[in-house]
Write a structure and sequence with these properties.
The complex is a heterodimer of chains A (227) and B (49). By secondary structure, chain A is mainly alpha-helical. Chain A has helices at 2-24, 36-69, 72-104, 112-133, 137-152, 154-164, 182-226, and strands spanning 173-174, 177-178. The N and C termini of chain A lie far apart (40 Å). In chain A, 37% of the residues are buried. Chain B is built from 1 helix and no strands. Classes of the chains: A mainly alpha (227), B mainly alpha (49). The A-B interface holds A 3, 7, 10-11, 14-15, 18-19, 22-23, 27, 36-37, 40, 201-202, 205, 208-209, 212, 215-216, 219, 222-223 and B 3, 6-8, 10-11, 14-15, 18, 22, 25-26, 28-29, 32, 35-36, 39, 42-43, 46.
Chain lengths: 227, 49
């Protein structure tokens, strides 16, 4: 029942975010001269980036919780969140390169913000690969938790990269608030909320699936012992 | 004006894509529920002597 409520709220919020993005938000940001289509990718880009950060923060917290308690439930939450985080980071990189081509004239540049984001994506792809290569659940959980904590350290670096180093990546959220008109802020914030619900919706599914996988492997092990 | 019409097409296209993704996820959820039930039954039968 709770999941049903979450599913339909997510559906409506994503639909509302898309309506605001394409039908309400301005086609051009102040001071920017990019193609309107690329400008509308901005809201998807920012929403995906925000949720990648949320997903990897959950990996970090769940990894610490696992190392403290040795309860495999936390490992399951961390792995599920890492998978979704990798998808959101891929969306961030993809929409970012399309926007960059329109705004900067190049698909990719080794800007600190872009480079640290790419490193973050590689780190969590490595996290998922390591999980696949270790068969013992406890060993896999320990390796994953340590890598999850270390990889998370790149998240604040990505966020602060444009402030720490000279970067051409736009900074839209500062200590003084949002550096954009109210119509863009409303669209962006709705996108944040919609993507956060989408993250929770997928996380719920993925953890339920992982629990079934674990029960099945336990059953398989028990059957092997019986034989 | 044409840009404006283009945005309506984009909205319609992304809405169709989102409905397909959502419907697929809901379908998977139904499958998962059936799988959970099957595993629960398997666990119960494997506990019997």
């Amino acid at each position: 029942m709770r999941r049903e409520w979450l599913a339909w709220t997510t559906f409506l919020l994503v639909e509302a975010a898309m309506a605001l993005n394409f039908l309400y938000a301005p086609n051009l940001a102040p001071g920017e001269q990019v193609h309107p289509l690329s400008q509308h990718l901005f809201y998807i880009h920012v929403g995906a980036a925000w949720n990648a950060a949320v997903a990897f923060t959950v990996v970090f917290v769940a990894s610490i919780a696992y190392l403290r308690s040795r309860d495999l439930k936390w490992d399951l939450w961390a792995a599920a969140s890492a998978e979704i985080g990798v998808v959101f980071t891929a969306v961030t990189l993809l929409t970012g390169t399309i926007w960059a081509k329109a705004a900067w004239g190049v698909w990719w540049t080794w800007d600190p913000k872009l480079t640290t984001t790419l490193i973050l994506w590689f780190l969590f792809v490595a996290y998922l690969l390591i999980r696949e290569s270790v068969t013992s659940p406890d060993t896999r959980a320990v390796y994953s938790a340590v890598l999850g904590i270390v990889a998370f350290l790149d998240v604040p670096v990505v966020f602060l990269a444009a402030r720490w180093w000279s970067s051409i990546h736009p900074v839209v959220i500062t200590g003084q608030g949002f550096l954009m008109p109210p119509s863009m802020v409303l669209t962006m914030v709705t996108g944040f909320v919609a993507f956060t619900f989408l993250y929770c919706y997928w996380l719920w599914h993925r953890t339920a699936l992982a629990r079934v996988e674990r029960r099945l492997s336990e059953l398989r092990a028990r059957r092997r012992e019986d034989i | 004006m044409s840009e404006h019409v283009g945005m309506y097409y984009l909205f319609a296209g992304t809405t169709v894509a989102w409905i397909l993704i959502f419907a697929f996820t809901q379908k998977m959820r139904g499958n998962l529920r059936r799988l959970e039930e099957a595993v629960r039954l398997l666990q119960e039968t494997s506990r019997e002597p």
